[in-house]
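Technical note accompanying the year-one report. For the benefit of new consortium partners, we illustrate the data format agreed upon in the data management plan: each record pairs a sequence with a structure-token string. No post-processing was applied to the example shown here.
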Amino acid sequence: MIQLKRILLTIVLVSILASSSVMSAAVRAISVTPTLTFTGTTAYCSVRINEIGKQIEATLELWHGTILVDSWSGSATSYWVIARNHSVISGQTYTLKVSGTIDGVPFTGNPVTKTC
């Protein structure tokens, strides 16, 4: 009877540890949001990705509807930041998107849509 309790306790503990590892990985999911601001007819586009010790490869894209207006790519280890600008049309809506890989694992950031 005591042996059965030990086996059950071991199974419960292993289950708890396994689920906490999965939850920890889910909490650790990468959340990347680019920044899009306008001054007059200039769009300021930027994003910062900070993953210590990881190889980061990313592309930042400025879209006007279904038209790719401009894009910027790069790579770095641990920290990747890019800030660029592009001429835009006042009153038009633009979307800034970011995607890439971190240590070979693909990610897509939260897009930002704003009107100039």
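Partners are asked to follow this layout when depositing records. Strands lie at 35-39, 42-64, 67-87, 93-102, 105-108, 112-115.
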